[in-house]
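Q: Convert this sequence to structure tokens.
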Amino acid sequence: MRSFLKNQVGSHIRFLQRAQKYRPIGVDIGDSGVKMVQLSDGGRQMSLVAGGCRNRPDDVEFGSSRWQRWAINAISELTDNERFHGRHVVAAMPDQNVFLEHIRMPRTAEGATSEDKVQTALLSKVKNRLPFKADDAIIKYISAEDGNVVVIAVQRTIVDRHLAIYENTNLQIKSIVVWPVALINSYTSFFGRRQADVGAVVVLIEIDSNQTRLVACRHKNLLFAHSVAVGASQLDSEEMVTRLVVELTACKRQFASMYKNAQVERLIFLAGHESQSACTAIARQLEIPAQIGDCLTAVKIPNPSGLGIDRRNSQVSWATAFGLSLS
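A:
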């Protein structure tokens, strides 16, 4: 009888392990630090498996060789525990290393029979605006609406440097996802699940420590993206809030010029409720209805104190990291 019960319990545990589908570890790395999140599917609600963050020390210059060593150590510290499952990660390149440009699809690319020809046509269109040499550029693009294209370019040597970080932490890169796609993943998974949301144009805003990310999308379809070097740590004065609003207003005008018939339905601030006062001020000046979308309230958190995430830290936004784990 004891042997039978032991086998039954073992079978039940194995069944639960199979039912719990662990997502890859999402790694959001940037000039403010490193954030890592892992989610799992199982039951009706997604669960937070593990998470954690490390802030970049002030005396470590972002992008330097010393920063690279710090990032390796920070990621190793976060993953050297039993909370994270597996070694597969989905990572994002830092905003500062990603060149985004919104253009019309070149006529030379229309009807092209291969991706190489499309990328060559796009590169010729944006190469004079690149902050690095065109022959060192990796070019990707996302087709939007009304003939618009979001061109994404990163420097090949920078990508190699980031890949070295994960190689030195014994993690396996499943994919590298750009941050606008990660934010859309969080939105569609948690806050855009109604049938009415499928056709609605929304603007997602994530306010991180030193960065504000803006994405306009029609559900899963990316329309526009922009990053501003003003974050929660700088929004302690009316002057900085005004500066951010000026940048976001310029994005609003550019979006309107690109998409004549697209009406933005609402803003969704992918942030905690602690950021509500700043979000309210921004929404009022942009004159768009707004709501808060807190990813931490959208998932099941079995053990908040033991998962490495402090809900009270309003300067840490988890939306990009969540979206990477959802990829």
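The two ends are 45 Å apart (CA to CA).
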